[in-house]
Amino acid sequence: MDTQSVLVLFGTFALLMILGVPIAFSIGLAAFATFLLFMSFDQSVYIVAQQIASGLDSFTLLAIPFFILAGNIMNRGGIAMRLIEFAKVLGGRLPGALAHCNVIANMMFGSISGSAVASAAAVGGVMAPLQKKEGYDPAYSAAVNIASCPTGLLIPPSSTFIVYSLITNGTSVAALFVAGYIPGILMGLSLMVVAGIIAKRRGYPVAPRPSGREVAVKAADAMLPLGLIVIVMGGIIGGIFTATEASAVAVVYTLFLAVVWYREITWRELPSIILESAVTTSIVLLMIGCSIAMSKAMAFADIPYSISDALLNLSENPLVLLLIINIALLVVGTFMDMTPALLIFTPIFLPVVVDLGMDPVHFGVVMTFNLCIGICTPPVGSALFVGCSVGGVKIGQVIKPMLGFYAVLVSLLLVVTYVPSISLFLPRLLLGY
What we know:
Distance between the termini: 36 Å
Shape: globular
Radius of gyration: 22 Å
Structural class: mainly alpha
Largest sheet: none
Number of strands: 0
Number of helices: 22
């Protein structure tokens, strides 16, 4: 490994981030500066542009704009409110009923929209006023919303797993999707335990028992939105369509619900929704393209293999090495958003875990879980900022109530890391993986 290359690559990236340069440009310029060490200016420009273009030339990546569009249609189409009403029925009899409702709604809405930020905004925007009216501490309410909004990144369909599949040269998207179910559900349930303990100590109210008719009505209202998961995952597992084709099916289904069935969106609103989705997609794809260029620069300087050798020489104990990798990813997650972190650090750590005998699907779940925690932590956590904004609290106010949630999330992360069957049971059962 060329020490000068490492200093230029990560030094340039860190400097540009400190100066406030957008992360996609920081990544791309850092890669460009590294190539300048080995080749001329013109060649460096050419290779960075080539890597961005070739990296985005993937059929698998078409799933990302489609899932983003489906999520935006659902955000505007009244889906969140129907899921929240159903979540109230499911969690209403537990201590701190509205907090449990928040977690359940985030699990359902996040899995459908595929976005932690969208989930934090949509669900938190509805729940925050209701919780305040019931006497909940706003900081506690915001902490519950922030901690639970990333659950949908583990519960499929998830664009994060699609990006991971691209980086790892074709790890099965279907296997990754199915592998995320148990860890994602355990993540939500563990957060409900912490929320319930705090709510019990503070004496937060329990919702009145719903009537049988009310349960039936709320469940019926939620069945069509939740049907998206059944259609998408059923089609993928059954081999009817690929993950990319499933994303297009998701758009058609959400359009039918929002425009025809619920009539929450008019045809005149669709251009603005499509434009918003295009802007979001362009941001995500630019980050992916620039991150692929940075990965090429790291490979050019032998950085991944050198780090892999260093870690393997550090200890022969797989438990110790996995702990080191988890700590490193948790630290990375505190200052880098999920997509670039995934793109940059997967090529570094994947060779290490493969040498340890870890399955790539299992590692994909572990990486995603790590970075889910990262988007909830300062200073760069996008879910943290959005959750505080919709909850009407400052970041400093929400950190203390978040500590209990951080503790249980990190503990569960270690369990998921060291017990592979949690992630691999369903892929083996349903897909014969």
